Amino acid sequence: GDEASIYEGRADYEVQTLDMEDIPATKTKVMLNLANPGAAFRWWQLPADGVGLARMEFVISNAIRIHPMALVNFDSLTDPSAKAEIAELTAGYADKSAYFVDKLAEGLARIAAAFYPQPVIVRMSDFKTNEYAGLLGGAAFEPTEENPMIGFRGASRYYSPRYRDGFALECKAIRKLRNELGFKNVVVMIPFCRSVAEAEKVLGVMAENGLKRGESALQVFVMCEIPSNVILAKQFAQHFDGFSIGSNDLTQLTLGVDRDSGELADLFDEQDDAVKWMIRSVIGEAKAAGAKIGICGQAPSDHPEFAKFLVECGIDSISVTPDSFIAVKQNVSEAENAKGAAGGAPLG
Predict the structure, then answer these.
(1) Which residue segment(s) compose the domain that 53 sits in?
(2) Given CB 3.0 to 4.6 Å as the disulfide criterion, which of 63, 155, 230, 299 pairs with 193?
């Protein structure tokens, strides 16, 4: 972050030394959420089952810093200051778009390499319009929205004339990552896909850019974070290899609660019965369709009972931040043992 707090006095802390052999094995896969490529090799020793959510936004905002459409349209940029800074950052690149492709592929490669051959699920860009506008040259390409959280984001951008060429660069970076650098363990994930028709459009654009689902063992997942993803899970499963439940957005849109509102903080509850109904339902539908399904979020680490709920529902994987990994692994192990003791499915 850009802001921090400094407190007077000496902080109290406790050091724990853990033996990796003491971490229990589980049938449910426990994976990591990562954004910073520099952190990937810090956590390689954890016995994680791969990366359940690799956010490319960190690479774009920190290593690239430039709006992809500003690179595509570099010659026609009208902001002289932004154009000069972009020219400096991309020095040596005759094709400014290649800068984006190279930097994004290199950043994601560090994550893919740290966990190879385990799967690394890379979510395509999911900036909101106000966040995109903050990138160099971005203001000229982004609309002003009252509520970017449910605005022009995710899948809707990928086939839109406003961003289609930018998404093409993301696809080229993934193609380079998989086909040139050899990281076939990379899985692509589409965020905020509102309808089955939208899914078909996005998959079509991906295929046009050399990323066809099923070719070279490419798997494509979809974030399950909108009620329509649950309601039409059977239909979505015909177009994707798996789902990843985004519990924050799913909670927000199920309960009609702005997750950023302090006034409504007490109402934002991932364990609300309505949210749990959504999660239980989509897990069942995914299983019936033969699709993989996981969740990425903090709830399983913050609430052991939530990990138990997910295990009881039969979820395939749980993805958490690295500092929560051991606690979640233990919570999942206890939940699986309890399920087995109660006569549930065998736990491997």
Answers:
(1) 28-341
(2) 155
